[in-house]
Write a structure and sequence with these properties.
Length: about 375
């Protein structure tokens, strides 16, 4: 079989899906791209058995349909160096591949496509949901950093999609911090939920910025299929019950601090350098319209303190947080000002934007750390 395809179009699609491939695979065929040429469209598949991604490139001309597999790294590295031009692929019956370009040619060995594993299919009871690519990207961007790496509680290692007829909520938590991103601009036809694993969530995060329009998500108890404009991803879901996230969110934290997010972030970055390396503990002391950020490392006799203006009218109080977690949370909010809502030094604090984005409700929660004094 023989076909001609644009070098840059092919390379950009291959590069986008290549992130699926693991560095070590149990099956050697999983180190390959699966090429399937049919009616002038070249569809390319990659898989790690848990996640499969498919994309398609239009070819300029072809003589017949066919399928073959080719080692991904070799092909990617070879195409990376070729500027935009037509490439001619010629594949013999015993999978010898010749790639011809303007001033030269590559010769490499392909493999039989029959060995490539089939991607999972959904059951008849699959649920279907459509949402805007920008909403999905926003939710994944906000929540991904809060997912856990917990072998004992795998349900915490992904983003929980809670779908109702009024909204779609994306939740992530590692037991110390929690993110709840609710979009009122997307909803399902029925109540449903699934847990989206971290690896495919990261793959989606990389693909979605270039997408426009709707993303279709179909899922059953075991798998989900995400259909985008140029890509299709099938992934194994995390099975199990996600904890009741609403029950851990405090309903009434009386102490409210309004503070400039960037200024607080800058202070935390500076002061946290002097915190204990073991705990990263940072202390926030609240007084009337003033927040004092301090840290110390007794082992090295270092400490730092910084004062910032804020809006606060409650009783003076001190609370400790892990600085890296608090910095992460503030980095994942885009608003200029945030409200930190607290009850007492032993209970979770919530952090929300002063002004929520249109049709969005974003809440971040952080468990405190005990202060020694």
């Amino acid at each position: 079989m023989k076909f001609i395809v644009s070098s840059t179009a092919l390379f950009s699609h291959l590069q986008a899906i290549s992130r699926v491939i693991n560095s070590k695979n149990t099956l050697p065929i999983l180190d390959c791209f699966l090429f399937d040429l049919k009616d002038g469209m070249l569809s390319i598949t990659v898989s790690d058995t848990e996640t499969t991604m498919v994309t398609a490139v239009e070819v300029n001309e072809s003589d017949k349909d066919g399928r073959f597999a080719v080692v991904a790294k070799t092909l990617l590295d070879a195409l990376k160096e070729i500027p935009e031009q037509p490439l001619t692929f010629d594949i013999s019956d015993n999978y010898e591949i010749t790639v011809m370009y303007q001033n030269g040619k590559y010769s490499l060995m392909g493999q039989n496509a029959a060995e490539y594993p089939q991607s999972a299919t959904l059951g008849e009871n699959a649920v279907k949901v459509e949402l805007d690519a920008a909403i999905l990207l926003n939710g994944i961007n906000r929540a991904l950093f809060a997912t856990a790496d917990d072998e004992l509680r795998p349900v915490m290692n992904g983003i929980y999609f809670d779908i109702t007829t009024e909204d779609i909520t994306m939740v992530a938590s590692d037991g110390h911090k929690l993110v709840r991103f609710k979009s009122l601009a997307a909803q399902g036809k029925e109540r449903a939920a699934f847990i989206f694993p971290k690896k495919p969530a990261n793959l989606m995060k990389a693909l979605l910025p270039k997408e426009h329009g709707q993303v279709t998500i179909e899922f059953d108890e075991r798998n989900a299929v995400f259909t985008l404009e140029k890509f299709r991803m099938v992934c194994r879901l995390i099975e199990g019950r996600y904890p009741n996230y609403n029950s851990v969110i405090p309903q009434n934290n009386p102490h409210k601090v309004i503070v400039d997010r960037q200024m607080l972030l800058g202070a935390l970055r500076r002061v946290s350098i002097f915190s204990s390396q073991a705990s990263s503990l940072i202390k926030l002391r609240l007084e009337e319209n003033l927040i004092v950020i301090s840290a110390q490392d007794i082992d090295y006799s270092t400490s730092a303190e910084e004062k910032q203006a804020c809006q606060y009218a409650g009783n003076p109080m001190s609370i400790g947080f892990k600085s890296t977690f608090l910095i992460d949370i503030l980095n994942n909010i885009t608003a200029d000002e945030v409200v930190i809502e607290l009850a007492d030094p032993s209970r979770a604090g919530t952090i929300v934007p002063v002004e929520q984005e249109k049709d969005e409700n974003l809440l971040m929660l952080l468990m405190p750390m005990m202060l020694n004094d």
